[in-house]
C-alpha cells in the first residue's frame, strides 16, 4: 500500500496547487489499485477504480501493461469487476493505443474462444499503432488459415480504421482571442523556465500566457459554448521559437477537445491563427494534434497608385486592416469551401492552405501519427493478402517539371523519398515520405518525446535511422532537484530505446552536456542526409535539417521516416570581401538586413536557404545555418566545396571517435557505423564518383539574394527594439543595426558568449582580447559581468591544449566543476568572468537568467521577451545579439563601443573570416581551426 499512500499524499499536495491527481505511469502503483479493486471491502476501492479507468496512461507505460492484463482476465472470465464488463474492458483496450493493449487484443483475437476472438478482431480493426512483431503475428495467423486474422487484414487493406471515422465538420464556429500583437513566440505559450513540467500536462498548462488570459479564454467559452476559441497572433506570425509541442499541448488543453475520455489532459484539435500565418514547425505540430492553423492576412501593406508599399517615417510599410479579429469576434471556418467568413457569412479570406487533403486527413484521424501508421498498416495488409490497397488516402502530391533542374533540397528529398513510383523526379511543392538519417532529442522536450513513444507503443529505434542523440544541454547549467528528477529517467529511457545519450544511465562515462546542435552537426556525416531534431535550431552545415516538435521526433525515431512537402528554396550567394575588422557573425546579421532591403518581405520565411558558403568548415558555417531559424526559414543547406567537405568530415570523425573513446557507443555500434559512413563518403568525393552536393545550374528558386560583403563596415546588432511604438515590431530578428547607431553610450548590464551560435574560434577570440587588453593596460577589468559557456567539452579540451584556457581561468571569478555542479540558479552577477559548463546556459533561459530588467548583449539566438532576461515594472529586459568581440568589449566597457573603439580593440585579433567560394577559397580559413 506504500505506493498508493504516497500517491494520496501527492494528490493532496497537488490539490493545494489547484491540480487534479497526476496521471499514473507506474505499473506497480496500478497493481496496488487492482488489489484494492478486486477486494470489494477495501476503503479506497471506489477511488482506485476511478484511477484505474480514467487516470492510467496508455501505450507502453508499465501502468498500461498491468492495466491491459486485468482487462484480459476480465474478458476471459478469470477476474470479475462488477463495474467493468467484458464489453467495457474491450472499450478500454481500444483507447490504449498499442503495445500491451494490442498484444492482449491479438492474444484474444487469435485465441480459441470464437466469440471473444470475433469481438477482439472488431476492436483490432480500429487500431493503427501496430509494429513489426504485431503485424508478423497477424501475417502468420493468416497464413495458418485463421479466419479472424483474415477478416482483420481485409479491414486494414480497406483502411476501415480511417474510413469509418466521422467526417470533418463542414463548418467550425470560432470566437477569437488575441494572445498578443506581433510575432508570438512559443515561449508565451510554453515558457522555457517551465520546461521541467512539460510532461505533466495539467501543471504545465498553468504557465500558458498568464492566469488572466486563461480566465479570459474560459469566459469566452462560457459565453460561446457552441464555438471553439481561436488563438491569434495579431499583426504577426504564430508559433516562432522553440517549445512547439508543449506550446500546442497547452493551447489544446485550454481550447481543444479531449482525445479520449479515459486519458486525462491529452487534448487535440486546437485552432490557431496569425496575421502572417503559422511558423512552419509550429504548423507541423498543429498537424500532429489534428488542429487547424490559419493565415488570416487581416492586415496588409498600404500601397500607392503604382502598387508600391507606402512607408512611414521609420521606413516601415504602413499596414491597413482588411477585417477585424479583435477578441470576442465570431467567425465561421467554412471547411467545405475553404473560406473564413464573418458571422453573416461574408467571405474574409481564402484558407485553402489550411485544408489540403492531407491536413483534412489529420483532422479526421485526430492527428498525423494515426495517418502515418495507418498507411504503413494498410500497405502491409494488402501485401500479405496479395491485393492492391483500397485507394482511401489523399495521394501524395507529386510535382515534376520537365526540363527543370533540382535545387539542393530537391536533390536530397529525391534521394531519400519513399514510395515514389516509376523513378519520378520531384520538385518543390510535392508531398513526400522521406527516410530520416539522423534524429536529435533535447532534454527539455525529451520527456515529451518519451511520452509520445510510449503513447505510440514504440519500444526500439527504427533500424533505418543511422544515428540518434539525446542531449543534456538545456539542463546543463544547474543540477537542481527538477533536473535530478527528470534527466536520469529520460536518459535511461532513451538509452534503452537505442539512442546515444549525453548522460550514461549506468555511470560508465562522464556526462557530456554539449549543445545538441553541435553534436548533431558532428554525427551528420553525409551531405545528402535528412536530419530531424526536437529544437528549432536543428540546422546543420551538412545535409538538410528540420527543427521539429517532440512528437515528430518520436515518429522519426520509431519509424525512421517523416512526411512533409518539399520546400521552395532561396539562393544566397556573396560578393565582395570582408573587412579585416569584421567577424563572420556580422555577415550573418547583414544577410538578414540586405535580404529585407532587396526583397521588401522576408523571403526566407517558410523556405530553405541554400547558402553558397563552401569555403567555411562545418563549425564556422554552422553559425550561418543556425541563425536561419531566426530568419524564420524552414531549413538551410550549405553548398560546400569538395575539399572543405572532406576536411569537415575528418573533423566529425575525430569527434565521433572521442565519443566512442568515452564509452558512449551502444551495443549496435551506432557511432562506429557513422565513422564507416563518413569514410565511405570521403572516398566517393575523392574518387569523383559523387562530389559534394550542389544544385543543378537550371534549378528554380523562389528568390535569389546576393550579400555584398563590401557594404559591411562595422559590427551589426540584432535589436529586440523593446520600446517600438508598433508592438508588432518588437522582439523580431528583423531589426539589424550597426554598432554606431548606439553612439557608444548604450549601457550593457551583462555580456554572454555561448550557445550553439559560437564555435572554438569564438572562445579563442575571448582569450585573445583578454591577452591584448592585459598587455596594453596591465590587467583586465570588467564593468559588466561576462558569462562564457563553451558549446562543447571538446572545445575546452582543445583550448587547454593550445594554451587559451589559462588566460580565461586567470580572469574568471567562477569556473564550473563537474564534481560539484551548481544546484541552484544564479540570481546575482558580479563584474567578473564566469566560465560556465558547456551547454545552452542563458540562451535557454529555463535555469539561468540575467537579472530582471537587464540589457544583455549576447552571441546567442534568443531575443524573445522573457527568455534570456525578464522585465521589471520600471524597465523592459533586452537581449541584443552581436558577435563575440562586440560582446566581450561591451562587458569590459559596460556599454556598447563606438565603431572606432571596436576597430582598435580587434586589430591583430584573428576573427572568423570568410571569402566567397569563387574568390580565393583557400584564404577563407582562420588559423583557429
From TrEMBL:
Residues 411-894 form the Aconitase/3-isopropylmalate dehydratase large subunit alpha/beta/alpha domain. Residues 176-406 form the Aconitase B swivel domain. One of its GO terms (molecular function) is 2-methylisocitrate dehydratase activity. GO terms for biological process: propionate catabolic process, 2-methylcitrate cycle; tricarboxylic acid cycle. SUPFAM superfamilies: Aconitase B, N-terminal domain, Aconitase iron-sulfur domain, LeuD/IlvD-like. One of its GO terms (cellular component) is cytosol. Residues 6-162 form the Aconitase B HEAT-like domain. Gene3D superfamilies: Aconitase, Domain 2, Aconitase, domain 3, Aconitase, domain 4, Aconitate B, HEAT-like domain. It holds the Pfam family Aconitase_B_N. Keywords: Iron, Iron-sulfur, Lyase, Metal-binding. Its EC number is 4.2.1.3, 4.2.1.99. This is Bifunctional aconitate hydratase 2/2-methylisocitrate dehydratase. It comes from Paracoccus litorisediminis.
Amino acid at each position: 500500500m506504500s505506493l498508493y499512500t504516497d500517491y494520496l499524499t501527492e494528490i493532496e499536495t497537488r490539490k493545494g496547487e489547484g491540480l487534479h491527481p497526476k496521471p499514473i505511469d507506474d505499473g506497480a502503483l496500478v497493481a496496488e489499485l487492482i488489489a484494492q479493486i478486486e477486494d470489494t471491502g477495501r476503503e479506497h476501492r471506489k477511488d482506485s477504480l476511478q484511477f484505474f479507468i480514467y487516470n492510467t496512461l496508455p501505450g507502453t507505460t508499465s501502468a498500461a501493461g498491468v492495466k491491459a492484463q486485468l482487462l484480459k482476465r476480465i474478458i476471459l472470465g478469470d477476474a470479475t469487476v462488477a463495474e467493468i464488463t467484458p464489453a467495457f474492458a474491450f472499450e478500454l483496450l481500444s483507447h490504449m493505443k498499442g503495445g500491451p493493449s494490442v498484444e492482449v487484443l491479438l492474444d484474444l483475437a487469435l485465441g480459441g474462444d470464437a466469440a471473444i476472438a470475433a469481438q477482439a478482431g472488431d476492436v483490432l480493426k480500429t487500431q493503427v499503432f501496430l509494429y513489426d512483431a504485431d503485424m508478423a503475428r497477424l501475417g502468420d495467423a493468416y497464413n495458418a488459415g485463421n479466419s479472424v486474422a483474415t477478416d482483420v487484414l481485409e479491414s486494414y487493406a480497406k483502411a476501415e480504421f480511417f474510413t469509418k471515422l466521422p467526417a470533418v465538420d463542414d463548418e467550425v464556429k470560432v470566437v477569437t482571442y488575441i494572445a498578443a500583437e506581433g510575432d508570438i513566440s512559443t515561449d508565451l505559450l510554453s515558457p522555457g523556465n517551465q520546461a521541467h513540467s512539460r510532461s505533466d500536462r495539467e501543471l504545465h498548462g498553468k504557465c500558458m500566457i498568464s492566469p488572466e488570459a486563461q480566465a479570459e479564454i474560459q469566459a469566452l467559452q462560457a459565453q460561446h459554448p457552441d464555438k471553439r476559441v481561436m488563438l491569434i497572433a495579431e499583426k504577426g506570425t504564430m508559433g516562432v521559437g522553440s517549445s512547439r509541442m508543449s506550446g500546442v499541448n497547452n493551447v489544446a488543453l485550454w481550447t481543444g477537445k479531449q482525445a479520449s475520455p479515459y486519458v486525462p489532459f491529452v487534448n487535440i484539435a486546437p485552432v490557431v491563427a496569425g496575421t502572417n500565418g503559422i511558423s512552419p514547425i509550429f504548423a507541423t505540430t498543429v498537424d500532429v494534434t489534428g488542429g487547424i492553423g490559419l493565415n488570416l492576412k487581416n492586415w496588409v501593406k498600404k500601397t500607392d497608385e503604382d502598387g508600391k508599399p507606402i512607408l512611414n517615417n521609420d521606413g516601415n510599410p504602413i499596414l491597413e486592416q482588411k477585417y477585424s479579429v479583435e477578441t470576442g469576434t465570431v467567425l465561421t471556418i467554412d471547411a467545405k469551401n475553404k473560406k473564413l467568413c464573418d458571422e453573416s457569412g461574408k467571405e474574409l479570406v481564402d484558407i485553402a492552405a489550411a485544408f489540403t487533403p492531407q491536413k483534412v486527413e489529420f483532422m479526421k484521424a485526430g492527428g498525423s501519427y494515426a495517418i502515418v501508421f495507418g498507411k504503413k498498416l494498410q500497405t502491409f495488409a494488402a501485401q500479405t493478402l496479395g491485393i492492391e490497397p483500397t485507394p482511401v488516402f489523399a495521394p501524395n502530391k507529386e510535382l515534376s517539371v520537365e526540363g527543370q533542374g533540382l535545387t539542393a533540397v530537391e536533390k536530397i528529398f529525391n534521394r531519400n523519398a519513399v514510395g515514389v513510383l516509376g523513378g519520378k523526379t520531384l520538385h518543390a511543392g510535392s508531398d513526400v515520405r522521406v527516410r530520416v538519417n539522423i534524429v536529435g532529442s533535447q532534454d527539455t522536450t525529451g520527456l515529451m518525446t518519451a511520452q509520445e513513444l510510449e503513447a505510440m507503443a514504440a519500444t526500439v529505434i527504427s533500424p533505418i535511422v543511422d544515428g540518434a542523440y539525446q542531449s543534456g544541454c538545456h539542463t546543463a547549467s544547474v543540477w537542481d532537484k527538477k533536473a535530478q528528477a527528470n534527466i536520469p529517467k529520460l536518459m535511461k529511457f532513451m538509452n534503452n530505446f537505442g539512442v546515444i545519450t549525453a548522460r550514461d544511465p549506468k555511470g560508465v562515462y562522464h556526462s557530456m552536456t554539449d549543445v545538441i546542435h553541435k553534436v548533431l552537426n558532428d554525427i551528420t556525416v553525409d551531405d545528402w542526409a535528412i536530419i530531424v531534431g526536437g529544437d528549432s535550431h536543428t540546422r546543420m552545415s551538412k545535409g538538410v535539417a528540420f527543427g521539429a516538435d517532440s512528437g515528430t521526433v518520436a515518429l522519426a525515431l520509431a519509424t525512421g521516416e517523416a512526411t512533409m512537402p518539399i520546400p521552395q528554396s532561396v539562393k544566397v550567394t556573396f560578393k565582395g570581401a570582408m573587412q579585416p575588422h569584421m567577424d563572420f557573425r556580422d555577415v550573418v546579421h547583414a544577410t538578414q538586413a540586405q535580404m529585407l532591403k532587396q526583397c521588401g518581405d522576408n523571403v526566407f520565411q517558410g523556405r530553405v536557404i541554400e547558402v553558397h558558403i563552401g569555403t567555411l568548415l562545418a563549425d564556422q558555417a554552422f553559425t550561418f545555418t543556425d541563425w536561419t531559424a531566426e530568419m524564420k526559414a524552414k531549413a538551410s543547406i550549405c553548398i560546400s566545396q569538395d575539399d572543405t567537405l572532406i576536411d569537415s568530415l575528418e573533423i566529425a570523425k575525430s569527434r565521433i571517435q572521442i565519443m566512442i573513446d568515452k564509452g558512449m557507443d551502444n551495443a549496435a555500434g551506432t557511432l562506429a557505423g557513422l565513422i564507416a559512413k563518413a569514410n565511405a563518403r570521403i572516398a566517393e568525393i575523392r574518387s569523383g564518383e559523387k562530389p559534394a552536393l550542389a544544385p543543378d545550374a537550371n534549378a528554380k528558386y523562389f528568390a535569389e539574394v546576393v550579400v555584398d560583403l563590401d557594404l559591411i563596415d562595422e559590427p551589426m546588432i540584432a535589436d529586440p527594439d523593446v520600446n517600438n511604438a508598433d508592438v508588432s515590431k518588437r522582439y523580431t530578428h528583423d531589426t539589424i543595426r550597426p554598432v554606431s547607431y548606439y553612439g557608444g553610450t548604450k549601457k550593457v548590464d551583462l555580456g554572454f558568449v555561448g550557445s550553439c551560435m559560437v564555435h572554438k574560434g569564438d572562445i579563442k577570440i575571448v582569450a585573445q582580447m583578454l591577452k591584448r587588453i592585459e598587455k596594453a593596460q596591465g590587467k583586465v577589468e570588467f564593468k559588466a559581468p561576462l558569462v562564457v559557456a563553451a558549446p562543447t567539452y571538446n572545445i575546452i579540451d582543445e583550448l587547454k591544449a593550445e594554451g587559451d584556457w589559462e588566460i580565461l581561468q586567470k580572469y574568471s571569478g567562477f569556473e564550473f566543476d563537474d564534481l560539484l555542479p551548481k544546484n541552484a540558479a544564479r540570481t546575482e552577477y558580479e563584474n567578473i568572468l564566469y566560465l560556465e559548463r558547456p551547454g545552452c546556459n542563458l540562451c535557454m533561459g529555463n535555469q539561468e537568467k540575467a537579472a530582471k530588467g537587464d540589457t544583455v548583449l549576447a552571441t546567442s539566438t534568443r531575443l524573445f521577451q522573457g527568455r534570456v532576461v525578464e522585465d521589471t515594472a520600471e524597465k523592459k529586459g533586452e537581449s541584443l545579439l552581436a558577435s563575440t568581440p562586440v560582446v566581450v568589449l561591451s562587458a569590459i566597457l559596460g556599454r556598447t563601443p563606438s565603431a572606432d573603439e571596436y576597430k582598435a580593440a580587434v586589430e591583430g585579433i584573428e576573427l572568423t573570416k570568410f571569402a566567397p567560394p569563387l574568390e580565393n577559397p583557400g584564404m577563407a580559413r582562420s588559423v583557429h581551426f
